[in-house]
Amino acid sequence: MSDFYKKILDGNKKWVESKISQDPKYFEKLAEGQSPPLLWIGCSDSRVPANEVIGAQPGEVFVHRNIANMVVHSDMNMLSVLDYAVNVLKVKHVIVCGHYGCGGVKAAMGNDSIGLIDNWIRHIKDVYRHHHHYLDSILDEKERFDSFVELNVKEQVYDLAKTSIVQGAWKNGQELCLHGWVYGLSSGIVKDLEVNLCGNEDLDSVYQLKF
Q: How far apart are CA 44 and CA 110, in angstroms?
């Protein structure tokens, strides 16, 4: 058994002990069920743990993660998570959270072939294509990269709003708001991109935005 593998098993035991020392019934209460108010759609990057970023406890955040925090309408994994979160757990907020320095977004800015992931990155490249006039006008490469990260998050929020799941919730008068954030790896601070959609009237206003 490798030292690292043993370390994470030992880490689990220490974590359990610390929780029980604070509350002997911690895990008993946690096992009773979940009613999180939030669904987090984030990047798979190991440096962006959803619960820790917002200081949430287990049971407070329902999480879906993939490369570059994408909302792809043919992704049955994402749609299944979204459906369960909205229609069963009745979450009131969905946050799409990207992060500066995202490897998936960076890869989509180039033409190198990485392998199987090229098929996934194609969806990110579509975002660049939609906004290429604006992005190509940014001369500073880092600024262009950061802007692309932000635009990608915004587009995923808009695509999320167009899913039949979110549309159905809004049609039924369910309280549900969508938000777009970007996390700063070097600061730990999230930036609210002020994309807050709580109904189709908000989505309609999106098409009037200029980037």
A: 20
Is 118 designated active site? no
How far is residue 69's CA from residue 103's CA, in Å, rounded to a whole number?
Answer: 11
By three-state DSSP, how is residue 202 classified? Answer: helix
Q: pLDDT over 90 for what percent of the chain?
A: 88
Which sign does the torsion angle of CA 90, 75, 42, 31 carry? positive
Q: Determine which one of 43, 93, 97, 179 is catalytic.
A: 43
Q: Is 99 a catalytic residue?
A: yes
Q: Is the pLDDT of residue 209 over 50?
A: no
Looking at 10, 23, 47, 130, which residue is catalytic? 47
Based on the residue annotation, tell me whether 43 is a catalytic residue of this protein: yes
Cα(130)–Cα(6) distance, integer angstroms:
48
Instruction: For residues 110-118, give the mean pLDDT.
Output: 89
Cα 54 → chain centroid: 13
* Whole-number pLDDT of residue 85: 98
Would you tell me how many other CB atoms lie within 10 Å of the CB of residue 65?
17
192: annotated binding-site residue? Answer: no
Contact between 107 and 114 under an 8 Å Cβ cutoff? The reply is yes
Q: Per the annotation, does 177 bind a ligand?
A: no
Domains observed in the chain: 1-32 (no CATH), 36-207 (3.40.1050.10)
